[in-house]
């Protein structure tokens, strides 16, 4: 959109409304940490709830992440490994990795495809400390993510693209319902 004023970015707006705090927090959890405060915390939960309800009403099955690190498309490197009490644990930059693992040994009948899953989880990224300073709440260490995940047949060769188009249409629909501009 074209504005007749200079628009503010999300960090400037959030700090001005006292719903985001990002400055002077490295002592808490390191570089790229933040707090969502008051209405900011409520806004995050409201957006997650809105998205989950929307996708569940459109036929997606809701799931939250469990523990699966191997066989998710990148040889187990999708998640960041960490050790705790001698056991390997996985942390994820996306909820889709553990859900891909759910289907690795799970037979789905052709008549039941496509399977649509909406995944919600707290995600983690270690690669945010790259020396570059992204602006605002981009590429932070920890965040909540809601993601669409699908499993399709390959009988006609177009099923995957059709499901992707459906997911894209749902994203556009949600942004429009929220009154947000997108491209």
Automatic annotation (TrEMBL):
Pfam families: tRNA-synt_2b. Keywords: Aminoacyl-tRNA synthetase, ATP-binding, Ligase, Nucleotide-binding. One of its GO terms (biological process) is seryl-tRNA aminoacylation. Residues 61-93 are annotated as: Disordered. It is an enzyme of class 6 (ligase). Its EC number is 6.1.1.11. GO terms for molecular function: ATP binding; serine-tRNA ligase activity. It comes from the Eukaryota. Residues 102-183 form the Aminoacyl-transfer RNA synthetases class-II family profile domain. Gene3D superfamilies: Bira Bifunctional Protein, Domain 2 (3.30.930.10). Coiled coil: none annotated. The keyword Acyltransferase does not apply. Residues 66-87 have a biased composition (Basic residues). InterPro entries: aa-tRNA-synt_IIb (IPR002314), aa-tRNA-synth_II (IPR006195), aa-tRNA-synth_II/BPL/LPL (IPR045864), Ser-tRNA-ligase_type_1 (IPR002317). Belongs to the class-II aminoacyl-tRNA synthetase family. Type-1 seryl-tRNA synthetase subfamily. This is serine--tRNA ligase.
